[in-house]
Amino acid sequence: MKIYNSMTRQKEEFIPADGKNVKMYACGITVYDLSHIGHARQAIVYSMIADYLRYRGYNVRYVRNYTDVDDKIIKRANELGKNALDFSKEQIKETEIDMENLHVSKADVFAKASENIQNIIDFVQELINKGHAYVAENGDVYFDVRSFPSYGKLSNRNVDDMKNGVRIEIEPWKRDPIDFALWKSAKPGEISWDSPWGQGRPGWHIECSAMILNNLGETIDIHGGGKDLIFPHHENEIAQSESLTGKTLAKYWSHCGLIKINGEKMSKSLGNSLTIRDALEKYNYEVIKYVMFSKHYTSDIDLLDNDFNLAENHMYYFYNSIGNMLEYIKNNKNENITSIRKDDISEDIIPDFIKYMDDDFNTAGALANLHSIFKYVNNIMKQTKQDTIVENANTLQNILNKIREAYGVLGLFNQEPKIFVHELKKKYLKKLDLDEDFIEEQVKRRTKAKEEKNYELADKIRNDLDEKGIILMDSKTGTNWNIKSLFNLQI
Ligand SMILES: [Zn+2]
Predict the structure, then answer these.
(1) Ligand 1 centre from 233 Cα, in Å?
(2) Measured between alpha carbons, how far is 43 from 37 in angstroms, rounded to an integer?
(3) What are phi and psi of 471, to 5 degrees?
(4) Is 203 part of any domain?
(5) Together in a domain, 90 and 216
(6) 187, part of any domain
(7) Ligand 1 centre from 210 Cα, in Å?
(8) Owning domain of residue 438
(9) Residue 164 pLDDT
(10) If residue 254 lies in a helix (H) or strand (E), which one and from where to where?
(11) What pLDDT is attached to residue 490?
(12) What is the pLDDT of residue 265?
């Protein structure tokens, strides 16, 4: 299995430090507002990686954090007249609801900064003892960046360039402008804890180092997070942890791409931030996952409305096909006949899925492969030769089992096909300003017209519906209708 390592900037063979046991950490969310689709992507990606590793037989211990003490949280809580911790607790609850509605599988541990204050203080104290940190005259504690010679190795930066190139706020109590805070002394109105350096609270970076050490140990296998965390957050985590333990913090650094909306960075001030809640209001959770998985996790996604529509098209096609498969199997299966089609492709489904996923979790490749599977499936179902019908049903059953096994790892196809298809149809009918009763009535009128040999009227009804975006399909058992904009993959 191969995984991209941001530290070495290449794909590497994945070999955990301890056989089949995998220790994995992903930086979570700073909870000061409703979570947005970028948070969703990161959570979906690292859960997918944990789920897939488990599917491949690894024992995964997956830890995520919530940053529940931070400048933004304190500011927001003050604006709302709330206690900062009460406020962040509420926000964590809201995020948990969103993640549950998205069906993101849970981490084994959700660590919180506020619940690790003693671990953090101990960590900082040891860095001071080892000469990697110092207490400034204002009561802050800083990490001495110059004391860690390989600082910059992840983000490929040089300490001197950093100093010259980046505008750094002038804080005269720092030994060097590039030093960063491990502990911040309390300001009036801020939440604070007792420490050997007076009242204060942790800086942001230290919590991850302390929680990793506390929950997973000195070296972990995979450290994940959004690309935007590479510098300074992950660089600082490395400096803190490796200065303390003398060991490598993570074997593989994994970074997930960012989400833009219509070419722009998501931001509240631009008014283009898509919350998970809003996305779920508009789209089925598997449609959202499809959008995420249709791009490689390391690439940025520029979300356009059309991406969701396209994903709905794909998922509709898949679910509609699965619904038809179930129907076909139910009608044609014969317990006494176990033979399958000679060209049965079911045995390829899992190895193909693994081939894609073992290659740095290539979900996009795995999804693209579904098209060829369903193309085969739909071809079989179109065949009308009676003598192969039971064989077909057996083959379809095998294929369905394997699809569910493989793609279930990605959290797809867990819904009742009939309901999924029906809900999506309803949504698109609403967009076309049509309702099912009207269409059913037109179909009946047309059937009647055909029976009465009034082909002119029958054609007119068909054309009228076609203009409204509805296509009719005649078969032996009657006339089915569908929505053109949803059905175009199947025509
Ligand atoms: Zn972190």
Answers:
(1) 6
(2) 10
(3) -110, 145
(4) yes
(5) yes
(6) yes
(7) 10
(8) 432-487
(9) 67
(10) strand 250-256
(11) 62
(12) 86
Report the separation in Å between the CA atom of 459 and the middle of ligand 1, taken as the mean of its atom positions. 64
Same domain for 262 and 214: yes
- We report the CATH number of the domain holding residue 106 as 3.40.50.620
The pocket of ion ligand 1, defined by CB under 5 A, consists of 27, 208
Cis peptide before 202, with omega less than 30 degrees from 0? no
CA dist list (Å): 161 to 6, 164, 170, 172, 178: 21, 5, 17, 20, 11
pLDDT at 489: 67
Cα–Cα distance, 28 to 63 (Å, whole number) = 9
Beta bridge partners of 200: 185, 193
Compute, in angstroms, the gap from residue 224 CA to the centroid of ligand 1.
8
25 CA from centroid of ligand 1 (Å): 8
278/344 same-domain check:
no
Q: Say which residues have a Cβ less than 8 Å from residue 171's Cβ, sequence separation at least 6.
A: 177
62 C-alpha to center of ligand 1: Å?
14
Express each pLDDT in 65-89 by its tens digit: 999 999 999 999 999 999 999 999 9
Q: How many angstroms does the Cα of residue 236 sit away from the middle of ligand 1?
A: 9
Q: How far is the CA of 129 from the centre of ligand 1 (A)?
A: 23
**Tens digit of pLDDT for each residue in 138-147?**
999 999 999 9
Rounded to the nearest angstrom, the distance between the alpha carbon of 114 and the centre of ligand 1 is: 15
Question: Does residue 292 lie within any of the structural domains?
Answer: no
Query: In the chain, which stretches have pLDDT less than 50?
Result: 491
252 lies in the same domain as 385: no
458 Cα to the center of ligand 1, angstroms:
65
Number of domains observed in the structure of the chain: 3
| Pair (381, 442) in one structural domain | no
Cα 35 to ligand 1 centroid, rounded to whole Å: 17
Tell me if 472 is assigned to some domain: yes
Write down which residue in 388, 417, 446 finishes a domain.
Answer: 417
- 26 Cα–ligand 1 center, Å: 7
- The predicted structure's pLDDT at residue 169: 60
Backbone angles phi, psi at 256, to 5 degrees: -95, 145
Ligand 1: distance of its center to the CA of 234 in Å? 6
Give 27 Cα–ligand 1 centroid separation in angstroms: 4
Whole-number Å distance, alpha carbon 439 to ligand 1 midpoint, is 54
Residues 251 and 132 in one domain: yes
Last residue of a domain, one of 417, 445, 465: 417
Pair 244, 123: CB distance under 8 Å: yes
Q: What is the pTM assigned to this prediction? A: 0.95
User: Do 453 and 381 share a structural domain?
Assistant: no
Q: How far is the CA of 200 from the centre of ligand 1 (A)?
A: 20
Same domain, 320 and 454: no
**Residues 151, 168: contact at Cβ < 8 Å?**
no
